[in-house]
Amino acid sequence: MNILVTGGAGFIGSHTLIELYKAGHTAVVVDNLYNSSEESLRRVAQLTGIDHIPFVKADIRDRETLEQIFANNHLDACIHFAGLKAVGESVTKPLEYYENNMNGTFVLLDVMRRHNCKNIIFSSSATVYGDPAIIPITEDCPKGQCTNPYGQTKSMLEQVMMDLQQSDTEWNVVLLRYFNPIGAHPSGRIGENPNGIPNNLMPYITQVAVGKRERLGVFGNDYPTHDGTGVRDYIHVVDLAMAHVAALQVVERRQGLAIYNIGTGHGYSVLDVVNTFMRVNNIIIPYDIKPRRAGDIATCYCNPKKAERELGWKARYGLDDMCRDSWNWQKNNPDGY
Ligand code: NAD
Ligand code: UFG
Fold first, then answer.
1. Which residues pair with 27 in a beta bridge?
2. Which of 30, 85, 322 for a ligand 1 pocket mutation test, highest count of atoms within 8 Å of Cβ?
3. I need a surface site. Which of 165, 168, 200, 302 has the fewest CB within 10 A?
4. 150 assigned to active site
5. Where are the alpha helices (DSSP H) in the chain?
6. DSSP result, 19-72
7. Ligand 1: distance of its center to the CA of 282 in Å?
């Protein structure tokens, strides 16, 4: 298939491009490079052995340019990564988050419909479960109250796409609820490249390891978990990338609406991750226990069996691989791209 990849220069998008090409698909990337660099696309091309990845630098809210992209390319489906994703920033800039994520998706869906491309795979998040009612989380676990505008956009956009699919059953909509993506391509050539102080655990750890930050703050050690620190379902970004390729089967089978949790099914605490990182990479990560971070929950991990049953997809990498590959990327690219 020829696939429009919005946000394809970003962390998950760039890894997904490699797996798409490996599986015999082709892609057109649209990205405004707000949180990424075109260098990631150059490296994806090198890693996949192709000349270049077709790329349009544009905002998905720019309807005219999107129209042109669809007019100039035969596109079978869209994998929609483009969006703002910093939870804390979304609390201080709610309008920017709602405007970018909601409006961007509205324009995209409308242009897709006009060009009769009615197949979309959407980057959703475990955040839609709020403080989950069931652990491990299955897809039929009720959605919960999101504590921030970022999470609200994911939850609302899921609803928008479900309503659209119900109104017109020619649409195939796949909602992938990612758990916590970390790791990097094993080559160490592409990876996560956050601007400023990292919000997420693994980029913070790797920046401490490379000497950019002094100490990690561990946000809370009084949660009801095995060691008191927060438990999450970390998933290697290459496994996550492969889940997108697997999700294209929903389009091929004309399945309509499908929702999948994309995680490993294992919960690891903050200290499990820190200790594994230190052991695998033989580096000391100094840390201090800090107060809980507002909006955090104690435990979040999934039951990923539905994706295995219906898509034949299963995470292959473990926490050791994730820690090794995150460090391999950071040490080879201390300043990112
Ligand atoms: P990222 O920031 O690396 O990639 C997103 C890309 O979208 C960036 O390249 C950015 O420049 C681009 N973009 C943003 N707004 C745009 C717009 N209006 N027009 C065109 N391009 C735009 O983030 P990522 O980690 O690769 O995440 C990809 C998607 O997955 C996002 O939708 C994110 O919310 C979702 N997600 C991420 C995580 C995570 O922990 N990384 C977890 C759950 C869901
Ligand atoms: N943590 C620390 N110190 C840090 C950063 C994080 O102790 O410097 C802890 C957090 O308190 C939490 C765990 O590490 O217990 C993971 O935190 P992250 O910020 O890495 O990830 P979250 O689970 O909070 O959120 C991530 C994404 C969201 C997404 C959510 C669910 O950032 O976009 O997973 O998919 F919505």
1. 3
2. 85
3. 168
4. yes
5. 11-22, 39-48, 63-72, 87-92, 94-97, 104-114, 149-167, 201-209, 237-252, 270-281, 305-311, 319-332
6. HHHHTT-EEEEEE--TT--THHHHHHHHHHT-S---EEE--TT-HHHHHHHHHH
7. 31
- Residues 231 and 269 sit within 8 Å (Cβ to Cβ): yes
Whether the predicted pLDDT of 261 surpasses 90: yes
Q: In percent, how much of the chain has pLDDT > 70? A: 100
Choose the catalytic residue: 150, 223, 260, 317.
150
What are the pLDDT digits (tens) for 84-143? 999 999 999 999 999 999 999 999 999 999 999 999 999 999 999 999 999 999 999 999
- Cβ(128) – ligand 2 distance below 6 Å: no
CB 259 within 8 A of CB 177: yes
Q: Does residue 149 have a cis peptide bond before it, meaning omega lies within 30 degrees of 0?
A: no
Closest CA to 102 of 84, 86, 118: 84
Q: Which residues of 270-297 are buried (b: 16+ CB within 10 A; e: fewer)?
A: bbbbbbbbeebbebebebeeeeeeeeeb
CA distance linking residue 211 with residue 40, whole number of Å: 23
pTM over 0.90: yes
Phi-psi region of 79 (alpha: psi -120 to 50; beta: other; left: phi over 0): beta
In whole angstroms, how large is the CA radius of gyration of the chain? 19
Q: Alpha-carbon distance 296 to 111, whole Å?
A: 36
Question: How far apart, in whole angstroms, are the C-alpha atoms of residue 112 and residue 76?
Answer: 10
- Cα of 201 vs centre of ligand 2, distance in Å, is 6
Q: How far apart are the first and last CA of the chain?
A: 29
- Report residue 330 CA to chain centroid gap: 19
